[in-house]
Write a structure and sequence with these properties.
Elements (H helix, E strand, L loop, with lengths): L1 H21 L7 H9 L2 H4 L5 E2 L5 E9 L4 H10 L4 E6 L5 H5 L6 E7 L10 H17 L6 E2 L8 H9 L3 E2 L4 E2 L8 H9 L7 E5 L5 H13 L3 E2 L2 H4 L4 E2 L6 E2 L1
Parallel strand pairs: 2-3, 2-8, 2-9, 3-4, 5-6, 7-8
Antiparallel strand pairs: 1-10, 10-11
Helix pairs in contact: 1-2, 6-7, 8-9
């Protein structure tokens, strides 16, 4: 009986992960898809994943900066006149690094004070992490639009604290898997074949090669999509993973 129940649970999780990734417009790492499918609807309905739009527009988002490659990445994006949002780790900022994001092409969000899984923190620690990050952003005249928690992991306490600070939780709908050593044609193909109207694309400052982001920008355009600011997408309702329903 116990074995039958465990097998049933395993099959259920596999089906949930499949439903998240087989729904057109979604491409999530399988274990992360399972995590999202297990979240209560009350959680996912507060999070922005992907815009509910018919327009062929997408957003590029980069995590974990600023890092050593970031200035070259920003220079490339400016040369290509490509907009992007950067989710930053606050202690890595300095006044000089903060100025790198002053171009109107770029917006910034918080990735945390430290790269921690918020599910493992007490309510007090969560508040401290968010507020310490906010103080650093404000010190350098950066005005974050939103917060993407490290590892994309959320809980009710984090969502409540973000709501009290008017910070929008933003995740993604299309994982480039640059962090998983996807390079060159493999990375480009992985992104382009999963593009859909309203996609939020997950990238990382230090993981993606400059030549790959250059090629990706070209490939997205050739596929008939336009890269727009994340702020444009979040004006729309959010589609939700697994169910495909809207976030009101």
């Amino acid at each position: 009986m116990i074995i039958r129940l465990l097998l049933g649970l395993g099959l259920s999780l596999m089906l949930h992960a499949r439903s998240a990734n087989d729904t057109p417009g979604w491409h999530l790492y399988p274990s992360y898809a399972r995590h999202l499918c297990r979240l209560p609807a009350a959680h996912t309905q507060q999070i922005f994943f992907r815009a509910d739009t018919d327009k062929r527009i997408v957003a590029l988002t980069f995590d974990d900066g600023p890092l050593g490659r970031t200035p070259a990445l920003l220079k490339l994006l400016k040369r290509r006149q490509t907009t992007a949002t950067f989710f930053l780790l606050a202690p890595q900022l300095t006044r000089a690094k903060a100025r790198l994001y002053a171009d109107p092409l770029f917006t910034v969000g918080i990735h945390g004070y430290r790269h921690l899984d918020y599910r493992k923190l007490s309510p007090g620690r969560i508040r401290k992490e968010i507020d310490r990050a906010l103080r650093i952003f404000h010190r350098y005249d950066l005005h974050p639009c939103c917060l993407r928690p490290p590892y994309g992991m959320t809980n009710a306490i984090l969502l409540r604290e973000l709501g009290q600070r008017s910070l929008r939780p933003v995740l993604w709908s299309l994982d480039s898997q640059d962090w998983n050593h996807y390079r060159g044609r493999k990375l480009i193909h992985n992104v382009v074949r999963h593009l859909a109207p309203g996609s939020v694309i997950l990238l990382h400052d230090q993981a993606i090669r400059l030549q790959d982001i250059d090629a990706l920008i070209t490939a997205i355009g050739e596929a008939g999509y336009r890269i727009v600011p994340l702020s444009r997408l979040v004006q729309e309702k959010s589609l939700l993973p697994c169910s495909g329903k809207q976030n009101d």
